[in-house]
Write a structure and sequence with these properties.
This protein is an alpha/beta fold. It is built from 15 helices and 14 strands. The strands form 2 sheets. An 8-stranded mixed barrel has the order 6-7-9-10-11-12-13-14. A 5-stranded parallel sheet has the order 2-1-3-4-5, sandwiched between helices. The model has no long low-confidence stretch (mean pLDDT about 90). The structure holds guanosine-5'-monophosphate (2 copies) and manganese (II) ion.
Length: about 400
């Protein structure tokens, strides 16, 4: 295994190289200057299987180095080393992972041989990643055909009350059933739809289907809120509230049962129009939810300006929050604030029992996530509810 160590401190560099040598790693290259290490990788991205990277360096710091590694699509493993605060190391780790780098671990300096052994032992077992293939890019014309030709499908993910286990509603999520490529997730076509002004057609198509589904559930005795995602770009068409009102009337669904989940995915282009539209939706008693709350896109300023009645805590803060003091603090603060504003709270990304118990203890009202259920086709919901009834009692007790 070829190991590259990058650290501006000659002493630290010698120490780690020595530790690696004693552990039996002989193919070690050490660089005091990040630029030299980078030059080596630029000529051959496979020059190292694992990089041990110090974060605090004068010429080029670890964050810059990570950015260069990402643009080189470095396929090997990365171990971060730093004497900085744990939270700084964690942030760089997340950044590197977001760049799709294979982060083996992050260590606080000085590192012990045991720590190195553990991380490098793991690296030896997992083969090098093949560089990720770029997501396929569809043409706007193809997407337009898909929308018009009914290739988009709705799936539904339950939102349940943490206090009682009652199923309160669902969120509608779109999928593209592509005849050749199979099932495609929204990340691969929503941005395209926004860019080419197809999002209005897409949203309206989904909404009509979701309302028909809500009506069918209501007729079989299931009284469920139905959430539909709305992009900020939908809020430029001033007839949107009227369209929604007509669609509700046609389907025979009460406006109170619909919740539009708004994410600010791109910069708000026309703020005044958006405010006009959101306010008119509220006047029609349609529910408004602020989605992905806590991320850069959705923030406090919007809570003040727009009459939201539901707040969705972003999954990035939810899963694993029990073991992350910063995320727990953010959750508590946001829940307290929503409570004072009289806004219903939903935690997204509840993936395990620990997440469930924590959110319940913190007084969050609704939970959504893999722990409860994955998104499913509408016909599967009644069957899932039977199964859920079996799990429910135990989760609610205690
Ligand atoms: O479904 P997934 O599980 O992969 O959703 C990924 C993202 O796509 C989420 O942020 C969700 O809000 C968004 N999304 C899903 N369906 C729709 C939709 O119908 N319209 C819009 N605008 N976004 C959607
Ligand atoms: O609208 P939005 O981003 O918030 O939609 C929710 C997204 O999160 C969808 O892509 C959905 O498939 C996904 N999702 C739902 N439950 C979970 C979960 O428990 N964990 C994770 N990581 N993603 C989830
Ligand atoms: Mn959503």
């Amino acid at each position: 295994m070829k190991i590259l160590v990058v650290d501006d401190e000659p002493f630290a560099l010698r120490l780690v190289t020595h530790q690696l040598g004693r552990m039996g790693f002989s193919d070690v290259v050490a660089h005091e200057r990040a630029t030299d290490a980078l030059a080596m990788l630029q000529s051959d991205a496979h020059a190292a299987d694992v990089i041990l990277l110090d974060l605090q360096m004068p010429e080029m710091d670890g964050v810059e180095f990570v950015r260069h590694l990402a643009s080189l699509r470095f396929p090997g493993g990365l171990i971060l080393l730093s004497a900085e605060d744990e939270r700084i190391i964690e942030t760089v780790r997340k950044l590197a992972q977001a760049h799709s780098l294979d982060v083996l671990g992050a260590l606080h300096k000085p590192v012990t041989s045991e720590q190195l052994q553990r991380l490098l032992g793991g690296a030896a077992k997992t083969p090098m990643r093949t560089p990720r293939t770029e997501a396929k890019r569809y043409s706007p014309v193809r997407l337009m055909q898909a929308i018009a030709g009914g290739e988009l499908r709705n799936v539904y993910q339950p939102k349940v009350e943490l206090g009682t286990g009652r199923v309160a509603g669902v969120e509608t999520l779109v999928r593209w059933q592509h005849p050749e490529d199979g099932l495609i997730g929204p990340d691969q076509f929503i941005p395209l739809a926004e860019e080419y002004h197809l999002i209005d057609d897409l949203t309206r198509t989904m909404l009509v289907k979701a309302l028909a589904q809500a009506r069918a559930w209501a007729e079989s005795g299931l009284d469920l809120h139905i959430g539909v995602n709305v992009s900020m770009d939908n809020l430029g068409a001033l007839d949107f509230p009227d369209f929604v009102a007509r669609a509700l009337a046609t389907a025979g669904v009460r406006p109170e049962m619909l919740v539009l989940e708004v994410t600010e995915s791109r910069l708000m282009i026309n703020t005044l129009a958006a405010l006009d539209i959101l306010t008119r939706l509220r006047l029609k008693h349609i529910g408004l939810s602020i989605d992905d709350f806590g991320t850069g896109h959705s923030s406090l300023a919007q809570l003040r300006g727009i009459p939201f009645d539901e707040l969705k805590l972003d999954k990035g803060f939810v899963h694993g929050a029990l073991h992350d003091a910063a995320n727990r603090t953010i959750l508590e603060a946001n829940l307290g604030m929503a409570h004072q504003l009289g806004i219903r709270t939903v935690a997204e990304g509840v993936e395990d029992r620990e997440d469930w118990d924590l959110l319940k203890r913190l007084g969050c009202q609704l939970a959504q996530g893999y722990f409860v259920a994955r998104p499913m086709v509408g016909a599967d919901l009644p069957g899932w509810m039977v199964e859920w009834d079996g799990r429910r009692a135990e989760l609610v007790a205690g």
